[in-house]
Design a protein that fits this description.
The chain is α/β, with parallel strands linked by helices. The protein has 8 helices and 10 strands. It has 2 domains: about 120 residues, 2-Layer Sandwich (Ribulose 1,5 Bisphosphate Carboxylase/Oxygenase), CATH 3.30.190; about 90 residues, Ribosomal protein L1/L10, domain II (Rossmann fold), CATH 3.40.50.790. About 35% of the residues lie in helices and about 20% in strands. The strands form 3 sheets. Strands 1-10-9-2-8 form a 5-stranded mixed sheet. Strand 4, helix 4 and strand 5 form a beta-alpha-beta unit. Helix 4 runs parallel beside helix 7. The longest helix is centred in the first third of the chain and has 21 residues. The N and C termini lie far apart (about 65 Å).
């Protein structure tokens, strides 16, 4: 008869074997080939299947661009309307004249104002919003908080349509799923295009609209391969290369 020590050793061996077997059967090990570039439809299904978080994970796209980040004219900065939104609630601050405050609120702006809103941000340095929209006439006033907004990527700009004489329209578009993008310090662009719970067709349509916008944004002075690599993943999920 085996003694207690032998029984314990056998049980531990069985546990280790079971864990190894389970690891080999995980979807991430079986379904995702990191050396392969997948068609978008297959990649999207994989990203959804490999999302194992308890919350509704975001589906993210990462573009590696062949641009020279040291050259200002090669910076990529665009605004894209995703037809099915991102699944995220975007808080918007609207810096508008008193005459347009009502329509800005009706459009869905979370913070609305001019001098008082600017003074509040200047005093507290709090910016509890993701995007700022401004009328052109108020841009000179924003100089007081330009450092605060600029370092956090919140400064309104005509390049992404956040400086506009029609702030209500811009706010509605942002609330529906418009995203503002720019390359980071390594020449990459990162953006969420929806949630894992979205139908694959909606995610694919969002991706295709985004891809076309990125292609059109290629700087004229950029030489060589522009779209070097495109990957898709869910939050905390593995990256899946896309064939484009």
């Amino acid at each position: 008869m085996p003694d207690n020590k032998q029984k314990t050793a056998v049980a531990a061996a069985k546990t280790a074997s079971n864990k190894k077997s389970a690891a080999m059967q995980r979807p991430s090990a079986v379904l995702c080939d990191k050396t392969k570039a997948y068609p978008i439809a297959e990649a999207m299904e994989l990203a959804k299947k490999l999302s194992k978080t308890k919350f509704d994970a975001s589906i993210e796209v990462h573009f590696r661009l062949g641009i020279d980040i040291k050259k200002g004219e090669q910076q990529v900065r665009i605004a894209v309307n995703l037809p099915h939104g991102t699944g995220k609630t975007v808080k918007v601050a609207a810096f508008v004249s008193p005459a347009k405050e009502k329509e800005a609120r009706e459009a869905g702006a979370d913070y609305v104002g001019s001098e008082e809103l600017i003074a509040q941000i200047k005093k507290t340095e709090k910016t509890d919003f993701k995007v700022a929209v401004a009328e052109p006439v108020l841009m000179k006033n924003l100089g007081q908080i330009a450092k605060i907004l600029g370092t956090r990527g919140l400064m309104p700009s005509p390049k992404n349509d956040t400086v506009t004489p029609d702030p209500a329209k811009a706010i509605r578009e942002l609330k529906k799923g418009k995203v503002n993008l720019k390359n980071d310090d390594t020449g990459n662009v990162h953006v969420a295009i929806g949630k894992a719970s979205f139908p694959a067709g909606q995610l694919i349509e969002n991706f295709q609209i985004l891809l076309e916008a990125i292609r059109k944004a290629k700087p004229s002075s950029s030489k060589g391969i522009y779209l070097k690599n495109v990957t898709i993943c869910s939050t905390m999920g593995p990256g899946i290369r896309i064939a484009v």
